[in-house]
Predict the structure of KAD8 kinase.
Amino acid sequence: KIPNALWANLIQEHLSNVDCIKQGWILEGFPENQEQAWMLQSFGIFPRHVGTLRVIKSPSCLLPSPAEVYHTTFHWPSDPEVQQRLEVPPDLSEQEVSRRLLEYHRSFPELFQIYQKVLKSINADQPSVDV
């Protein structure tokens, strides 16, 4: 596990690059908790927009090659041969997703308070083009 201060330092260093300054940046999956959010702020990192994706249940499958991702509801392959090769990645097992979801629900209220003025919640239980 990487210490929060090291994460914040690495992020601050990267966000000071010219491409991030000119084009903007996106952090996915960070901060995960209040401590990480405060750490980012102590380093002067304040996002203009924060988004969350609301999902009730969104199972997905992945080809053995990470080149193509399929979704069991919104993007299912028509080729039966491809369908036979689909597998759920280990980090998307029901137990792992449940564990991550529990962690998220424990820390989201604190993150909501920190980012409430810039937070946008998006319904992700729909086709990706609509999200």
Remarks:
- The chain has two domains: 1-46, 56-130.
